[in-house]
Input
Amino acid sequence: MNANRPEATPGPRQAAPDAAGAPGRIVLLTTSHRVAPGLLSWPAWQALHAADRVLCADGAHPQLPYLREAGVAVEEASPTAEELVEACAGGRTVVVVATGEGEPALTDGLARLAGTGRLVMPELELLPASYDLPGARLLDLVQVMDRIRTECPWSSQQTHKGLAKYGIEEAYELVEAIEEGDRDELREELGDVLLQVVFHARIAEEDPEAPFSVDDVAGGIVAKLIHRHPHVFGDATATTPEEVKEHWLRTKAVEKQRSSVTEGIPLGQPGLALAAKLASRARTAGLDIPLPPVESIGYELLALAVRAEAEGVDPEAALRAAARAYRDAIRDAEG
Output
């Protein structure tokens, strides 16, 4: 025997074609944990009921109780690639209900067997039994936030007031990413802003008097968007951005029943933005309000903000752009 030649190891019997037909079929059934267990596609149910054997390595897989309730016999087993090929011999179909990791060891083993060329391999089909809908990863965020709120010493002690400053900071960092045009930074900052929403909603669940959840937050904004877009979800018609804005303002006025156009304007926002918002409300309401005839830097800035708003310019954004140019000039002077 040649010591440099490895011994041949016994493998699965070659599934040679016979009267029974082809070498069989392996169906790798994947499911999403973000979809309620038991809600499977019709092709998945057909494959499960038609299979000669159904295997699953995880006895606690959330789908198993529903499969068994539907009359599908599931064996708790974790076969090797060789054993699975053997199980398909004679034209049999074996469905493997994949665990959360997707059975990479099994699929890699099947690929290695196929690469040897020694076997007539069963047909391998990847069958998604349930799919993630758009926004499904938001469920992961809610679950992660729930665990952090429960187990993290810092997060578990936070309050709405304590987190308020972070909401302001994240909003400004988002604006900066937009103005800089950095796509990667934009994606990250959107995530940070989204975290603030989910964090506050999780804290709100614990309020003893008026609790609400992230589902209440989402439900509220969905209802508001539908109500304020009658041209999309109703019978109204709007063909221009101006008509859309008219719909929005008219619907909002009915909802809020405000006694002044200045109600709802946060006075804590930056001064230029505040001045521009006041000017916008006055102009939209058709009010011609003369500026106070006081000579001071503050009123000069107010006049500039009103003028910018009338010309369709965001004074805050314009000042930030000028400030960035000034910053660059300072750096150039510093050498």
